[in-house]
Every structure is written in C-alpha cells, then in structure tokens.
Amino acid sequence: MRPIIIGSGMGGLCTGLILKKNGINPIIFEKSNHYGGSFSSYKVGKYQVDTGAHMLTRGKSGELPVLMKTYIDPKIFEKKFVAQKHFKFFIHDKGAVLPMNLSSLLKFDLLPMKDRISFFKMFIDFLKLGRAGTEKYPDMISYDYVKKYITSRDLLILLNAFSWMSTGCSIKEGALSRFVDTFVRNKKISGKYILKHITPKSNASEGDWYPLGGLKKVPEYFIKEKLDVRLRKKVDKIVVKNNKVVGVKIKGKIIKTDMVIYDGLVKNLNKILIGGKYTGKIPKIDEYSSVTIWLGFKKKITNWNRESQVYCDPNLESPHWGVFFTDFDPSLAPVGHQLFGISAITHTNQKKLILKMEKTIDKMIPGYKKYVDMKHVQVYRAEKTLQKAYNSMWHLPEQKTNIEGLYIVGTDTKAFGSGGTMCADSAIRCWHHIRKDYKV
Ligand SMILES: Cc1cc2nc3c(=O)[nH]c(=O)nc-3n(C[C@H](O)[C@H](O)[C@H](O)COP(=O)(O)OP(=O)(O)OC[C@H]3O[C@@H](n4cnc5c(N)ncnc54)[C@H](O)[C@@H]3O)c2cc1C
Asked: How far is the CA of 399 from the centre of ligand 1 (A)?
C-alpha cells in the first residue's frame, strides 16, 4: 500500500520528496488545480506575480535549502536562486543598511550608540540562548524577554519591525521562540560560530534568496523529481479503524493505505476523520490579512540593485516591505519594465492599510504613479504562519499523532524557522517518526 499525502503545499512536497528519495513512493492528493499551496505565481497581464512577496531564507543551513541541496541538486542555490543584496530599514524616513554581523552593528547609524550597544547585548544573549534554549520560555512574548535591552522608542520601533516580519504580529504579541530564531540558530558557542556572527566580513543571515522564474519554481523543482501529485483531488475523509489509519475517501471511493500525512490545517483535521479522533494540540487561529500591492512600471524608473526596503511603523503596526522583483529576474516583466511588490500585515483594517502602503510607496519611489501600467492588490489570510506567544514553536503539535499511521506536517506543526523553512523542518521531523514506526 502506498502512503498518501493530503495537500501539495511545501509541507506535503518536502515530505513527499524525502519519502521518494528513501525508496517509498507516496501519492499526493491536492484539492486545488495547482501544486505548491501558498508557494505559487500567476500572470497579471504581461507580468508574473507571486502569492505574496516571498524570499527563501538561510541559503546555507536553512532546512528548506539543505533539503533541496540534498535531494534535488547540491548546486541548486547557486544555479537557480538570486541572493538579495541587503535589507535597508527606515525609521522616521531615515534609512540604513541592516548589519549582518555584530561588528557592523556598532556602526549602524539608524540608532544612537547607546541603542547599538543594547542591541549588541541582546544579540549576545540570543547567541547564548540559541533557538532551542527558548523551550524554557514556551509562553514568552518577545517584548517581555527583550524589554531590558530596549533603551529608546526607536530601538523598540526597529525590533517591532523584526517581530512582524518573523512572527506576523507585533513585538508585544509575537512568540519569543520565533523572534530569537530570526537572529540565531543552534546553541553552540564555538569559535567558528562566534566568528560567523561577529567579524566585519561575516554574514550571519546567510541571505534571502529569490527563485529565478518566480516562486512557483520552488514547488516545480520538487515535482520534477517525479513526485506523484494528483490535482483537483480533495480528500473528503481519512478512515480510521481501531485507532489505525486504513484509507482515505475521495468522492465516495475508498483508497486503502496504512499511512497518511496531512498538510491541511490542523484545526480542520477532526472534521475529515471518521472512525477516530485526533487528540493532539490544535493551534489557535487568529484573523489577519497579509496585503501585497504589485506594481508594473512601464520603464526602468529606479535601480535598487536587489535591495529590500523596510519602512518601520512608529505606532508599532506592521512594517511595509518593498522589493523590485525584476532586480532578481527581469523576465517577470516585459523587456525594459519593472515589477515591484510591497507587503504588510494587518489584524484589523485592510482598506486603511492599503492607503497607508500607498503613501509608503510614494516615499520609496517618489512620483511613481505616472509610470504604473499594472496594479494588482492581493489579500491573503496566511493563517498557518501567525506565531503569537500562545502559538509558539513549543505549543504547536508534534508530527506524530495519537492515531497509528497518521502524521501532520506544515507550518502549523512543531518546527523551527518560518514558512518554507518550517515546512522542511516539519517534514524532516515527520520522517524521523516514520522511520522509527515503520522500521525503514
Ligand atoms: C503573503 C505571504 C508571504 C509569505 N512570505 C514568506 C517568505 O518570504 N518566506 C517563507 O518561507 N514563507 C513565507 N510565507 C509562508 C509560506 O508561504 C507558508 O507558510 C507555507 O507555504 C505553508 O505551507 P504548508 O504546506 O504548511 O501549507 P499550504 O501552503 O497551505 O498547503 C496546504 C495544501 O493542502 C491542500 N489541502 C488542504 N486540505 C486538503 C484536502 N482535504 N485534500 C487535498 N488537498 C488539501 C491545500 O489546497 C494546499 O495546497 C508567506 C505567506 C504569505 C501568505
């Protein structure tokens, strides 16, 4: 019997790839007409836009890049991805390039020296704590841990922007586990690790990477490994007998299997189970919208040269993150045109946010309106990604469930990182359980 994966989001595809490369050939059922879930792209006129502005993080050691290098092509990042040059952060409309190591942090003139030193101390604290060290503080809100380092309103505004970008909510709501993970990975204070973060030439972030050909290319690389994905196949039920998975039901037809990996929303799992009940953790889901405004410009109006700009919000609301995607891949727009995307999040009023974002675009690209020949506004509810303190990594459900043969993956299950990285980490964790349970 072949294992069945429900959902071809990055969680389902990462798990499918690991199984396939270890000699187990799963069937992946996807209810929509495209694979990749939230990782997708489509055409708007002559431009190609993504489902929200996306970058892949940590090209060297992040779980998703490492998975792709291990199972698809060791050189895939060098060949198929383009690195962002840097982030430029703005506070009260003054901008500076974000330092990528502690030496340049001390020269970061967006903040006065006393704030830089505080930031430095916070970073050293995080280095000692490491991502795993946050397990001691599962319910901790980032602000409650870092407030001892916040020596001015401007430092709070900056750290708040980091929080929104990593957790989807403000520093006064976001989970410490995810916030610390943005800065550091493991708890190994070795000489090499310190050098990676401190010396003037080190790049602790490992960069943010954009896939050539657009976001849709990432799932495409997985599909090309001959994963068996069946589109427009909604799994209506997972059938359980005597607390063991025995099959799935699609349009009244039962397909037998003893292993199901579910990449849909964990909060919906019990709705599709028959003959059994999932008793594990269910993440709380909050209402919020992620807004992206895409603009096509009929000529080259500016050259950011792969710089991302982030305008921090003085009232601690979401920052506005703008990128010229044609800096990474000119083929996303007609020859000589530019494609720009700007993203932000709101938990309250979308219309107000869109108006505010338009004012930010005017600051980023003065007089931009006269060059626009495409405008496309996307609103998504990225419900799997919000990490408030009560949905911290340490409160998300394990991949192995109480039902024999039933596993869960994706960004609403326990994993480090964010978005795609979490999907890969959840798939790796799921594979550890499967190997043990099925002795493979
Ligand atoms: C605007 C925006 C910006 C983002 N930016 C980034 C970024 O820069 N970097 C990053 O790494 N991440 C980013 N993310 C997050 C990332 O896109 C998602 O967290 C991740 O792709 C979620 O993957 P998943 O597999 O957990 O779930 P999903 O992508 O939601 O996939 C689940 C899949 O399961 C299918 N499914 C569900 N139920 C069934 C069923 N019963 N039968 C068959 N199929 C089913 C769905 O159709 C879907 O395709 C962003 C998200 C948004 C919205």
From this structure: 17
Residues 406 and 276 in one domain: yes
28 phi-psi bin (left φ>0, alpha ψ -120 to 50, beta other): beta
The reply to whether 105 and 201 lie within a common domain is: yes
Number of compact structural domains in the chain: 3
Is residue 52 within 6 Å of ligand 1 at its C-beta? yes
- Dist. CA 229–CA 30, nearest whole Å: 7
Q: Does 382 have pLDDT greater than 80?
A: no
- The atom number, within ligand 1, closest to the CA of 29 reads 43
Same domain, 258 and 401: yes
pLDDT in tens, 277-296: 999 999 987 878 899 999 99
Answer yes or no: do 402 and 427 share one domain: yes
Best mutation site among 4, 14, 263, 320 for ligand 1 pocket (most ligand atoms within 8 Å of CB):
263
* pTM > 0.90: yes
Q: Closest Cα to residue 336, out of 115, 31, 46?
A: 46
Same-domain check for residues 222 and 310: no
Domain stops at, among 344, 360, 382: 382
Pocket of ligand 1 contains residue 288 by CB under 6 Å: no
